[in-house]
Amino acid sequence: MTGTPGTPGTPGTPALAGAGADGERHLPIAAIRPPRPGRWIAAAVAAFGMVWLLYTVVVNENLHWDVIAAYLMDGRVLGGLWVTIQLTVLSMAIGLALGILAAVMQLSGSPVLRGASALYTWFFRGTPLLVQLIFWFNIGLVFPSFGLGVPFDGPKLVEWQANELITPFTAALLGLAINEGAYMAEIVRAGIRSVDPGQREAAEALGMSHRQVLRRVVLPQAMRVIIPPTGNQFISMLKTTSMVSVIAGAELLTVSQRIYLGNFEVIAMLIVASIWYIVLTTVASVGQHFVERRFERGHHALPARVRRNLRPFGKGSA
Fold first, then answer.
1. Is 251 in contact with 244 (CB distance < 8 Å)?
2. Which residue range is the domain that position 189 belongs to?
3. How many domains, the chain?
4. Rounded Cα gap, residues 53 and 60, in angstroms
5. Residue 127 maps to which CATH number?
6. Eight-state DSSP code of residue 216
7. 160 phi, psi to nearest 5 deg
8. CA nearest 192: which of 213, 174, 165?
9. Which phi-psi region, left, alpha or beta, contains residue 167 (left: φ > 0; alpha: ψ -120 to 50)?
10. Prediction pTM value
11. 68-110 pLDDT, tens digit each
């Protein structure tokens, strides 16, 4: 029996890959990627540029790599590094607390609270951080002393001199934290608004208070939206602390400036500070990555977690 050429199952027909749902057989697709010479050329240019830049930096005698290596682990530099870390962590913690408070006030039903929160975010986002730092450092020119007592020029129980209370570190902390709180307020508010209003309504229907709704239902779901920009703000704060050098805050850049004013190694000391800033931001970026993965993984199990938080109220209402 001879078959017709080109008919499946007959002699002279090449082997076919497989059958589809309708019984027809299909030939395998041998996909070939099209050539992309532009990509190869761009990669070669980028690689050449990076190698040339690295070579230029390494062999440049004016950079004084021996001075950089000598001061990289210097005690004064490490002390400034520790002040930078302290300012970053404390400013972000206080700023986050202020941001949550301001965001809750913005979503409040009271027009007075909404107006106060809007005024706070408007003013501190509208004025430069550098101006705020200088203002807090010179607050003694406006208020020579601070105290606790009867308001409206009444007697004071305790009183402190502003020049003694507001040190460069305190002024830096006030400026950074209060300014950060204004930005965190918008981030937290956006995260809270991202939660379905039905979640809040269901929790309130079960008899939960506003605080319980916020803590057990809204914030756990809003964290997935809040965490990424908060991580970016933390990384930005690590570098923003360098602005404290204008009030001699003893952080990393200030210490580096004091050293190069003595040894005249300006570029070398700036590179030392830059290396430590890169190390800090790299560590913070890695931490942000893992925190985001943690909350992203928990997002799929979040509805069950919210139902578990509501369970005691559901039983009580039944």
1. yes
2. 71-317
3. 1
4. 11
5. 1.10.3720.10
6. I
7. -130, 145
8. 213
9. beta
10. 0.76
11. 999 999 999 999 999 999 999 999 999 999 999 999 898 888 8
